[in-house]
Fold:
Amino acid sequence: MPTDQHVLPETDLIIPACHKEEEEEYEVVYHKPATLVDANMHYCPGCAHSLVHKLIMEVVEELNIQDKTVGVAPVGCSVFAYDYMDIDMQEAAHGRACAVATGIKRLMPDKYVFTYQGDGDLAAIGIAETLHAINRGENILIVFMNNAVYGMTSGQMAPTTLAGMHTTTSPDGRDVSFYGAPIKVAELMANLPGSFYVTRQAVNSANAVRKTRKALMNAFKYQQLHKGTCLVEIIGNCPSNWKMTPVEAVKFIDEEMVKTFPLGDIKVPNTEDLKIF
Ligand SMILES: Cc1ncc(C[n+]2csc(CCOP(=O)(O)OP(=O)(O)O)c2C)c(N)n1
Ligand code: SF4
Ligand SMILES: [Mg+2]
Structure:
């Protein structure tokens, strides 16, 4: 039961002058992009999806294309991407994001259109859609989040699961003589004439994040050229299904994932094509 002695006197809060000066000296070095909805994300701690959402929205903000950008969300852990990105978005059935993006881009060629897809969505059920869209040279950006498992459905083996990697459907480790080798999506798609820019990046260090941001920036800008499909593969992680802490998952990328999925540009535009920039 409160008594009078617990009631604070009603006085104006006086900030000492020295503190005011300190406040004015602060330099803003980071702000959350206005293109990202102010919502709590549902992702597990340490998951790469949230970080990559932020990077995409930073690029959209910097290019000032919020009202010209349309995203296509997949089925997978990032199915609710439309709840976080403050742009026009369309949900696609599992694996069909590239077909949906094709329709949107063809109807509205001036829009910046991208898909956001996991490895189960893109490289398993959606591999045909993806391959044909790139082979046609659809002028879209595909953001491919490769975390080597079906995260949403509790960690089954994906086409990109590493050789020997333990998943719920390969408890003894992926046997490539039985299941085949992990599919290197970026290398595969770079061979298609319709692909314009193909790169593989990661977000497990500050440096990697900077490179991924740059790759996304380039890929968005290249849509102005109408020269073909851009594919930015990002080595993500899934600490929950990898049965690792976020820190262990970050190390696993450097120590294991990059052996199968080396980082870097795989197909870059020629300088002639980039003259307008
Ligand atoms: C037609 C259809 N088949 C299967 C499923 C079940 N399903 C939902 S998400 C998913 C895999 C998602 O994995 P991935 O694309 O790698 O995304 P992640 O969750 O790892 O980010 C599957 C198989 C479904 N929703 N629809
Ligand atoms: S299950 Fe994996 S991919 Fe899905 S939110 Fe959790 S860590 Fe991310
Ligand atoms: Mg996945």
Observations:
- The two ends are 69 Å apart (CA to CA).
- The first helix runs from residue 17 to 25.
